[in-house]
Every structure is written in C-alpha cells, then in structure tokens.
Design brief:
heterodimer; A: mainly beta; Methylamine Dehydrogenase, Chain H; four-stranded antiparallel beta sheet; 45% strand; B: 149 residues
C-alpha cells in the first residue's frame, strides 16, 4: 500500500468513525428527550441528603411553604399544624382556631399559601380560610360544591376535581370566591379511557404551579399529565416517559357502586411542580433501571414544563422498608416525608441549574 | 531513521498483543458483568437509547478484532479496525466530557478506577499505538502484495 493511500484511508475512516459517534450522540439525546422508550437517565449527585427530623407521627403531609418556613398538616388531627424552619431546626406547633366550635370534617386538607391558609373538605363540603398571622379559621363559603380534591390557585380561587352529577365521572374545575361563588367546570380536560368508567381511569394528582400559573393534573394510571392555565383552558397534554398510555383497570358494578375487580397498574404515584419543573414519583421501573435501587427507593422523574421534555431522574432512598409519600420542592431543597420522618435533600448540579435557568429568564 | 525489519516486526507484535490483551479483557469483563454493563450503558447520555444493541455489539466487535490481530495475514486489518474502534471510544469520551448534559459514573473492570480524563488519555495512547502499528505495517503489506502477485 502506498503511503498516500494509507493516509487517505485513515483520514476518511477516522472522520466516519468520529462522525458516527457524533450522530449517535445527537440522535440518542433526541430519542431520550422527545420519544423516550422508557429509558431514564440518572445523573450522579443531583440531590444530596442533608438532614432529617422525627415528627413523632406518620400522619403529616405538606400543606405549603414560604421563604422561611414549611407547614405540615395532619390527617388525624386536622386543626394541628407544624411550622418548621427551612433548615429543620425549630418546630413550632400551631393550633388552628375555628370561629365556631361545631366543625365537622370528614376528610379535610390544610393548604397554606402565605399569608393565607385554607381548610378544604369536599365531602362535607366546606372551605374555611384565614390568615397565618392569627390562624383563625372562618367559613369562606356558605355553599360549596362537593369536590374530591382541591388546590388553592391564588387568594380567591381554587382548582378542584369533582364528579359530574349524572355519570359520576371525574371533572376538573375552578371556583372563584364571591357571593355567589363562580364555578367553572371543564369536562373536556379529563379523558376517560374505559367504557363506563371515568372515575378510576381518570384518577390522579392535582397540582398548582404558582410560578407559571398552571393547573397540572397527573394521571395515576396512565403516562399522561394535563397542563392548563388557571382558568382551566388546556395548554397541552404531556407524557411521562413510561409506556403505559392506556389505563390497566378492571372494574365491576355492584348495584350502584363501582369497584375495582383487579389491582390496577399504577403509573404515577404523585407529583409536584416547582418553577419550570414537574417532579413525578413514578411507580414503574425503567428499561435499564437497577432492580435493587428501584425496590429500595422512590424514583423521581423530572420534566421541563416549558420545553416540554423529560430531563432526568433521581432516587430518594427509602427508610426501613418504607418509601416517601409526599414531596415538597423549594429553590434550594427537596423535603420528603417517609413514615414519621421529615427529610431534607439539597438540590445540586444540573438539577439546580435546570431550576435556576428559568428564574433568570 | 532506519529501523531493522526484525525490530519493526517486534514493535508490531507488541502493539498487537497489547490490543489483544485490552480487547479480550474488556469484552470478557463486559460479558461477565453483563447486567451491570447494560445498566451503565443505559445511563449513558450519549447512547442510552441504543444501549440494547451496544451491550452485545461492543464486546463482540472487540473479540472479533482480537482474533484478527492473532493472524499475520489479517493483522493489518485487525489493527485498522482496532484503531477505528479505539478512536470512536475516544470520541465518545471526548463528546461526553465536553458536550453532554452530564457525565455518568465510569465503566467496567480495571478502568473503573480511572477518572474520565485519564480514561481519555489512556484511549488516546492506544489510538496512537495503532497508528504507529499501521504505518509500520504498511511496508510489510506492500511486500505481501508483491509476493502474492
């Protein structure tokens, strides 16, 4: 072989070789972000465990937060609130003072959006509200519609999920306080997949993102979430990265009652939004995910709500065989509740960058 | 500078054996720790979407090249393929370090302990070795052609 021909052979094949790697990189990145075939990426060191405190009871949930404090509500003692500083040093116990003593709650949820707090019980139904300066609760609405879940949108409105009177199917809506209150239902948002259902197959988590002013509904049994503005006009329907596009649910009718006749396949356990990011606690193991890590921890998938892409995932380790149930995200930290422990993780690396990116813009 | 043919041949042999050693070791350790290798490839920001192919393709290619390098007649093409593969590995690490959104924890075997930049240098050295081998073999190849024609 002549020196020249070897030189050309090497030059051409080298550039092809490097070119192929480059093309792989570009196309792999595109596949992972847009039409992800359920492959998670776990960048190292994007959350770092910092601290935990004992809450003594396992019935606490996140009710809200502000700059300096996080507020926890309690499922078994609805008027009992914990205010904890964001560094988890001081726990302050608060007792909500109702204006009347004949409070009758069935399944009440506390929401704190400083300076206000709300007690929401859609099965009574009633909405109480007040200011966190004195924690005195007043009845906000004389006649509220029934609802199954609700999240405060701003100081005078709520996003909620209710059931349509005729079919019993789930429906999303907004309620604006006033006399009389303004109620808007948007039956086109939730889409039922199973004939005769519309309750189980549309179950999910209602989230309000106050930075982007978006109502987000994360389906529990399919790989979808709905993003709407605060008037419940649809912005887009996004997909989580797993492949369960159709709810796997079997249900049976027992007279008027509907019951699940087989254990359903959960896709998304819960979710929360902060700034431009959506955090989904997924119930499914990805194609290449370690089985051990999946069994011992919760997998959190992060989506960019503005770019409409999947970003990456991270694990939150379980504790004594229990996994996290609730999660709260701030600009610096992730707080999770596992059993009776409140744990704090620091946001780092590209996760922090992904959040900060949007704050600047 | 004139190098005697026997020195040339020994250099070529040494480079070939180094490559055989590296490729056999790397492929066997990948296949033995198949599960782990698959997980790690799946985590790769560069080829994550293609992990299922590469988990087989890469070790098989490495073994194939090692076999080519064993035979005098095929050595040139073995070295040539080894050079391309090593160059692609190097490009892979380079792209990952400079362009990708994050860098995963490193790969299998002895190299596990190597940091990515050291890994890059290690691979780069092998690319240079293969280039050297190919240049030395060029004259040999010509001779073979002359003999066989």
């Amino acid at each position: 072989m002549k020196p020249k021909s070897l030189f050309y052979l090497l030059l051409i094949s080298s550039s092809i070789g490097v070119g192929v790697v480059w093309i792989l990189y570009i196309s792999s990145e595109r596949i992972m972000q847009k039409d992800n075939p359920f492959i998670r990426s776990f960048p190292p060191h994007i959350v770092e465990y910092e601290k935990q405190i004992d809450l003594k009871f396992n019935s606490y949930y996140f009710a809200g937060n502000d700059e300096g404090k996080i507020y926890l509500g309690n499922n078994t003692a609805p008027l009992h609130v914990l205010a904890i500083d964001t560094a988890l040093n001081n726990i302050q116990e608060i007792k909500i003072q109702p204006e009347k003593s004949n409070f009758r709650f069935r399944s009440v949820q506390l929401r704190v959006t400083p300076p206000y707090f709300y007690l929401l019980d859609g099965s009574v139904p009633c909405i109480y509200g007040g200011k966190i300066t004195d924690w005195k609760a007043k009845l906000k609405l004389e006649s509220s519609p029934y609802f199954t879940i609700a999240e405060p949108i701003d100081s005078n409105a709520f996003g909620f999920r209710s059931n349509l009177a005729e079919s019993g199917e789930n429906v999303l809506g907004v309620l604006e306080f006033g006399n009389p209150p303004k109620i808007k239902l948007s039956p086109e948002l939730l889409q039922k997949q199973i004939k005769g259902d519309g309750i189980f197959d549309t179950d999910g988590t209602l989230i309000y993102n106050n930075v982007l002013s978006q109502i987000i509904y994360l389906y529990r049994y399919r790989n979808q979430f709905i993003v709407a503005d605060k008037k419940t006009s649809l912005i887009y329907r996004g997909n989580t990265i797993d492949t369960i596009s159709h709810a796997h649910i079997k249900f049976a009718r027992l007279g008027e009652e509907r019951m699940m006749s087989a254990p359903p396949l959960s896709v998304n356990n819960s979710g929360t939004a902060y700034n431009n990011l959506l955090f989904v606690n997924s119930a499914l193991r990805g194609k290449h995910d370690s089985k051990k890590a999946w069994e011992m921890s919760s997998t959190i998938d992060v989506y960019d709500l503005e770019k409409r892409i999947y970003l990456f995932s991270f694990y939150i380790a379980g504790l004594n065989g229990k996994k996290m149930t609730r999660m709260l995200i701030t600009s610096q930290k992730i707080y999770v509740i596992i059993d009776n422990q409140l744990m704090m993780y620091k946001l780092k690396g590209i996760l922090k960058n992904a959040l900060e990116y949007n704050i600047k813009n | 500078m004139k190098i005697s043919i026997s020195t040339k041949n020994s250099i070529i042999k040494v480079i070939s054996y180094l490559y055989i050693l590296l490729f056999v070791y790397a492929s066997v350790s990948k296949l033995l720790d198949y599960e782990n290798f698959r997980l790690q490839l799946g985590q790769s920001p560069l080829i994550g979407a293609y992990a299922e192919w590469f988990v087989w393709l890469v070790p098989l290619l490495e073994i194939f090249i090692a076999v080519l390098l064993l035979f005098n007649r095929l050595r040139f093409w073995g070295m040539y393929a080894g050079y391309i593969l090593m160059l692609m590995f190097t490009a892979y690490i380079f792209i990952m370090l400079n362009y990708s959104s994050y860098v995963p924890c490193s790969c299998g075997g002895v190299l596990e302990k190597l940091e990515w930049t050291e890994h890059l240098i290690f691979n780069g050295l092998f690319v240079i070795l293969a280039l050297l081998g190919l240049i030395l073999m060029r004259t040999q190849l010509r001779k073979w052609y002359l003999i066989s024609n």
